[in-house]
Amino acid sequence: MDFKIKQDTYNPLLKRKEVHAEVDHDGQGTPSRVELRKAIAAKYNTKPENVYVVDVETKTGTQSAVCEIQVYDDPQTAQRTVPKYIQTRNLPPEERKRVREEEAKKEEEKPKAGKPKAGKAKEEPKAKVEKPAAEKPKEEAKEAKPKQEAKPAPEPPKKGKEGEAK
Question: Which of 43, 57, 54, 45 has its CA nearest to residue 87?
Fold first, then answer.
């Protein structure tokens, strides 16, 4: 696996190098993100924890992939900046599976926390509060009025020779 750096820029605001590289992988499949992380970390003399492969794209019928890689100055900045799904993608397969299982367990626990437990006593219904006497006649007057029935809508005029005025 040989790689050529196409573009290398430093972003001081995010404290990272943004690298665009082309990786030649003759006779092999597209290299994994873990392999790319190790190779880029060795090239830039940093730890693989500071390197995140954002995108790997191999064009159909070619033996080279275009990669977008971010090399951070320190792992804390990387943890805060890189989205969680990119962090998960850059893990080895065993760790990735473990992390996804933990997230699935957390998702299962969230709905359970929202439901009330059956063992708790239900709240007693609140007693109806009597409304003041001043409001009662208005409500009774509303109830006493019969509702008017809706009239059917008139038919729309017909188009054509039959509906024209003569």
Answer: 54
